[in-house]
Amino acid sequence: MARVRRGKAAHRRHKAVLREAKGFVGGRRRLFRSAKETLMRAQRYAYRDRRRRKREFRRLWITRINAAAREHGLSYSRFMQGLRTAGVSLDRRSLAQLAVQDPVAFDSVVETAAKAVNANAVKD
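Below the sequence we write its predicted C-alpha cells.
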C-alpha cells in the first residue's frame, strides 16, 4: 500500500487562502497562517455587517422621515399612522428619499397623512 501524498491539495488550499487575502498588508497577505486567521475574522465581520447594514439604513431612514415630518408638525409615529390609515403604501426608504430629494412631493404625502390622522381623531 502506497502512502498518501497531500502536497497538491495543501498547495491548492494555501493558494486559495492567499488569493482571498489579496488586499491585506504585510505578513497577513504573504504568510498562510496569518492570512488564514485574518481572513476568517474578515469573513466573520462581513457576515455580521451584512445584517447590521440593513438595521443601520432603516434607522437612518426613520431619522430622516422624522425630521422632515416634524417640520410639518407631525411626529414620526403620527405620520406613519396617518399613512397607514390613508392607505398609502410607501416604504421607509422611498419616504426618506422623497424627504431629502423632493420636499414638495413629501409635503403632499404629509398632508395626506395629516388629514387621515385628523379624521381618525374626530371619529374617536
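Helices lie at 7-20, 27-30, 32-70, 76-86, 92-101, 103-123.
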